[in-house]
Design brief:
Elements (H helix, E strand, L loop, with lengths): L12 E4 L7 E2 L2 E6 L6 H11 L4 E8 L5 H4 L2 E9 L3 H13 L4 E6 L2 E6 L4 E10 L15 E10 L7 H12 L8 E8 L1 E2 L4 E2 L4 H5 L9 E8 L4
Parallel strand pairs: 2-10
Antiparallel strand pairs: 1-3, 3-13, 4-13, 5-9, 5-10, 6-7, 8-9, 11-12
Length: 229
């Protein structure tokens, strides 16, 4: 691994658009600078062997450009709302999507900040299930009753719109207030195909590019908390 120069060298590791605290994720990325070119799969295996249980490195590629963070244009989020019926969630989603703007507030280091949560949401769909099926494997979620599942595609904008901001928007537009905190997980992040509304693979340009001459390189690594789902 490459280190910075100076009296206090630091590893050259850059985290790209990390998930908010308290959320699960299956799509986190980081860039690691190396002092020499290495096989990406060997690097992935070595790093993965050092990870704690539940944190898995699933893919690595050699970066072919310096714009990786710019490729992360949107995220796909899944929100589980125990105690909320799919019908209630759909009504709230319809109201949210129909609004031209949905102003929400968030506490920041500089105080309360207001911003539009609606503009960043590319799509919002609702499905449902009964929670009994999950009761045997979950001790901190309700074991019975309704459960609405929200699937969001959210653009990465400034200020960032997080899943909890969308929940605040659903509360503001339709008075939707889940009885328990939502279980949130990021399923993907990457380039946004505006025509289809899908989030695509951010590693694709690196895989498609011709290899650079042998020398120092940067590897982009994807990590997944295995127990987050």
């Amino acid at each position: 691994m490459a280190y910075s120069a100076g009296f206090t060298p630091h590893p050259k590791v850059s985290y790209a658009n990390a998930a908010p605290t308290g959320t699960g994720s299956e799509a986190e990325y980081l860039e690691i600078a190396l002092v020499q070119q290495r096989d990406p799969e060997q690097l992935r295996a070595l790093l993965d062997s050092c990870m704690p249980d539940g944190l898995d490195i699933v893919d690595a590629v050699e970066a072919q450009g310096s714009d990786f963070s710019d490729r992360l244009q949107a995220s796909v989020w899944e929100l589980r709302l125990d105690g909320v019926t799919p019908q209630e969630a759909q009504k709230a989603a319809d109201a949210f999507l129909a609004a031209e703007a949905v102003e929400v507030q968030r506490q920041t280091k500089k105080g309360i900040r207001s911003f539009d949560a609606r503009a960043a949401v590319r799509s919002l769909t609702v499905t449902g299930q009964h929670a009994e099926a999950d009761a045997a494997t979950s001790t901190d979620r309700p074991g019975k009753g309704a459960c609405a599942i929200l699937r969001l595609v959210v653009r990465h904008v400034t200020p960032a719109v997080r899943p909890d901001d969308v929940l605040s928007g659903l509360r503001a537009t339709a008075d939707l207030a889940p009885p328990t905190p939502a279980a949130v997980i990021r399923l993907a992040q990457g380039p946004l195909d505006e025509e289809s509304g899908t989030v695509t693979d951010p590693f694709a340009p690196d895989r498609d590019a011709l290899p650079e001459p042998i020398g120092s390189g940067i590897s982009s690594v994807a990590t997944v908390p295995g127990g987050a789902a």
